[in-house]
Write a structure and sequence with these properties.
Pfam families: Glycos_transf_1
Organism: Micromonospora citrea
Strand order of the largest sheet: 9-8-7-10-11-12
CATH architecture of the largest domain: 3-Layer(aba) Sandwich
Structural class: alpha/beta
CATH class of the largest domain: Alpha Beta
Order of helices and strands: HEEHHEEHHEHEHHEHEHEHEHEHEHHH
GO molecular function: glycosyltransferase activity
Shape: globular
Protein name: Glycosyltransferase involved in cell wall bisynthesis
Keywords: Transferase
Largest sheet: 6 strands, parallel
Number of strands: 12
Length: 351
């Protein structure tokens, strides 16, 4: 079980890896985006409605959709959840073991300070209602796994449940095995990667590059593109946009970057691990997933500040770091490690 399935995204990568562990299993999603090439997915009835085009409008209906997903019953159900997938019920608790891998309790209803999509004061009452629904409809879940200690803490705070921590899989070997021409780049620019939406702080990334006096490459796509391009035109350093780079191009960009700028509070963050697999250090905030993926002072630098000057000061310290040490650290987040830990967790919960 997964929420909506997009063309790209860390949660989709995790879902694929979980599905590979149980290749005989059915794979359900709310809907699949039109540009997602994944095959073999069973979409919910929500996919046949216009609501598939608006996650925010569809959100209140999602618990109902998960509860009316199918008349089939299963011995084991594994959900990949960042909204309401963990509320799905395809059998009684006495006969069905339901396990949930949690990317985050839905930020827009539980943590609106992190994600502005739920911060409108007019949504405070609907948010409280959805919180109650979220807890009430998930009491049948036998076991939770969290993608980070950050998420483990939120599961305990919001749902009053314990969870094991299993960090997501990252294809670190592929990123490390770049062609020789990519590996000898001069590393003369800073890099920002991700979806161009407000909470990712790409405006701050541009300001950091200006304060550091270094060229910047922004890779990704999103609704803030026009606004970011306007900021880039006024910037005192070159800012290049790489819109929807493919995987090979993204690897080239990681290998050519002086550092990845990641001033965002993420639940885990696969992108910083991909960068480190390429020997590229990360400069970001001392919170969330970066506390688990970056070794401060060894594979990057973390700061509590959102002042561009403070981040720029860390850019000037990058020569203190070893690319070999950075790449070696990233190997601890491999798909093989994920498969081993997930298999052990599933086996333990199904005994």
């Amino acid at each position: 079980m997964h929420e909506w399935f997009g063309a790209t995204g860390g949660s989709e990568q995790v879902f694929r890896q979980i599905a590979d562990l149980v290749p005989h299993g059915e794979r359900f999603v709310l809907w699949k985006d039109h540009d997602a090439g994944e095959t073999g997915l069973r979409e919910s009835w929500l996919a046949r409605t216009p609501l598939r085009h608006s996650k925010a409008v569809a959100l209140p209906l999602m618990p109902l959709v998960w509860r009316t997903l199918s008349r089939q019953r299963f011995d084991v159900v594994i959900s990949s959840s960042h909204a309401f997938a963990h509320t799905v019920k395809l059998g009684a608790p006495e006969t069905t073991t339901h396990l949930s891998y949690v990317h985050a309790p839905a930020r827009y209803i539980w943590s609106p300070a992190f994600d502005g999509r739920g911060s409108n004061p007019l949504l405070s009452v609907p948010r409280r209602i959805l919180q109650g629904v979220d807890v009430r409809l998930s009491d049948h879940v036998r076991g939770y796994a969290a993608n980070s200690r950050e998420v483990q803490t939120r599961i305990r705070r919001y749902w009053r449940r314990d969870a094991v921590v299993i960090n997501p899989p990252v294809d670190v070997e592929w990123f490390a095995a770049a062609p020789p021409a990519d590996r000898v780049q001069a590393r003369e620019y800073l890099l920002g990667v991700g979806r161009w939406i407000p909470y990712k702080n790409f405006d701050l990334i541009i300001a950091i590059a200006e304060a550091a006096g270094m060229p910047l490459v922004l890779a990704g796509s999103g609704p803030q593109e026009t606004q970011l391009r306007q900021l880039a035109e006024r910037a005192n350093v070159p800012v290049v946009f790489e819109v929807r780079p493919d995987r090979e191009r993204l690897r080239q960009l990681f290998w050519g970057a002086r550092a990845l700028l990641f001033p965002v509070h993420e639940d885990f963050g696969i992108i910083p691990v991909e960068a480190q697999a390429c020997g590229t250090p990360v400069i970001g905030l001392r919170r969330g997933g970066l506390l688990e993926t970056v070794v401060d002072g060894e594979t990057g630098f973390l700061t509590d500040s959102t002042d561009p000057a403070d981040h720029a000061a860390l850019v000037r310290r990058l020569d203190e770091l070893s690319a070999e040490r950075i790449a070696a650290h990233a190997t601890g987040f491999s798909p093989a490690r994920f498969a081993t830990e997930m298999t052990a967790w599933i086996d333990d919960e199904c005994r």
